[in-house]
Every structure is written in structure tokens, then in C-alpha cells.
Amino acid sequence: MDNLALSQGGNLNLVSAALAAHAGNINLVIAVGTNGHIIDGQFYTRAAVASQAWTVSENSGVYGDPGNGAFTGGANGSTRLYGLFMDSAGTLTVKPGPIVDTARLAAGTAPLQFPAPQRGKVCIGCVRIAVTANTTFVPGVTALNAAGVTASYINLASIPGEPLRS
Predict the structure, then answer these.
(1) CA angle, corner 19, sides to 30 and 143, nearest 5?
(2) Cα separations (Å) of 136 from 104, 112, 132, 148?
């Protein structure tokens, strides 16, 4: 079988990033001693980061996205995943995923999609943000423990093939 048309590289995170909120609850902690990645088939490492700023610098393509990854909770609350991607130099890029109605997600009638893979970058994890009705969240600005905001962390080896169902 000829597989020359298949991708010959791959992007894979080899060590759990042990993601957490920094003491000030604005920045993230990427707590593992050394983070190992495979990006486009090559091995890279990066030291742990005690306080990593995270912001969204471009529009996600999601309707109503102001370009900074902000979103406001709908009547039933809203939930969104923010993908954390690293390049070979260790630079972090944050990509927001689609916004989902929290009640529909909890009922299993709406999936929570992961952000799309990024060329030349490995996904080390996601931050899952759920906000209550009329609460606005802005990455790198709103505290991760602010009133009406629930943050959780998902450490990843790569982007999962299926969305979250609850």
C-alpha cells in the first residue's frame, strides 16, 4: 500500500502539562519540570512556566467573537474550550473553540468542540470556561475564579478526535 500521500510528521505532547491557575487567577501555571513535544516529527523540550500569560490575539471565526476570545453567558450559561498550543520555540498560542449552551451540554444535546489543530504547533491542553448568564469572560483579563466563572483544565497529548459530551 502506498502511503506517500499521508502526513509524515505529527504533533504530540509527551508530558502532562499539569495546568492550573496561577495564584492571582489570571495567568496559568504549566507545572511540569520539562515539557516534551513532537512537532512535525521533531522532538522539542521546554521548561515549566510558573506564570504564563494567556490571551487570544485573533478572531476565532465564531459568530460574535470580538477578536480577543471574550464571550458572555447566554440565558442558560455558556461554555467554551480554549486550546493551548506551543510551537518549537515554546511560544504559547491560545485558540478558542465554539461557544455552547451549558444546559444543552449538560443534557447531552450539544457537544463541546475542541479548537482546530494548528500547523506547526502542539496542543498541550485546554482550559474549559463555563460562565453563568450575562457573565463575560476575557482570557488573560478575567480572573479564573471570578463570580460566575468556572474554570477547569484538560491536559492533552493531542486534540481528541471527538468533542466533549458533558
Answers:
(1) 100
(2) 19, 18, 9, 9
Other C-beta atoms closer than 10 Å to the C-beta of 157 total: 17
Domain-by-domain residue ranges, the chain? 55-155
SS3 102: helix
**pLDDT tens for residues 102-120?**
999 999 999 999 998 898 9
C-alpha 122/C-alpha 125 separation (Å) is 9
Q: What is the pLDDT of residues 41-80, one digit of tens each?
A: 899 988 888 788 888 877 666 666 677 889 999 999 999 9
Per residue in 6-39, is it b (16+ CB within 10 Å) or e — as a string? eeeeebbbebebebebbeeebbbbbebeebebbb
